[in-house]
User: Which sequence fits this backbone?
């Protein structure tokens, strides 16, 4: 079965069944904005990330996600008003970090921060010592 044959088959099924139509549309159209955002972060591609975020606005509206729906216009406004030197660094990939020299290993800054906290927490439990416990206490709320 070729891709075009599969696509034709799914379109025919979608005409007959509303559930299949919903999921087929989600996978072939809506889901690509999520995939684009993921790939944009992994490859540190600023334009792909922002293009994907713009496409996600309609999805957040359709699925009644008012917080995310409100954040996207704020993000776009912030990008438009950003100083050129900051925008230049973001366009060069400074919105994510690489965990290794490999091209595919970009991670969003918040995800990287969370990964570091998780790693430090596990290390403090596995190999406890005074320094690690004091350092870890900075992450834990009292």
Assistant:
């Amino acid at each position: 079965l070729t891709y075009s044959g599969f696509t034709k088959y799914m379109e025919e099924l979608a005409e007959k069944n509303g559930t299949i139509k919903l999921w087929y549309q989600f996978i072939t159209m809506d889901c690509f904005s999520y995939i684009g955002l993921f790939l944009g972060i992994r490859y540190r591609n600023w334009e792909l990330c922002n293009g994907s975020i713009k496409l996600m606005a309609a999805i957040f509206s359709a699925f009644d996600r008012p917080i995310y729906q409100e954040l996207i216009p704020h993000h776009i406004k912030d990008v438009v008003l950003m100083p050129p030197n900051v925008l230049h660094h973001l366009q060069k990939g400074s919105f994510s970090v690489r965990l290794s020299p490999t091209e595919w290993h970009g991670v969003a800054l918040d995800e990287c921060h969370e990964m570091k906290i998780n790693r430090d927490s596990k290390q403090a439990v596995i190999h406890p010592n005074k320094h690690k416990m004091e350092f870890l206490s900075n992450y834990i709320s009292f």
In short: The longest strand covers residues 96-98.
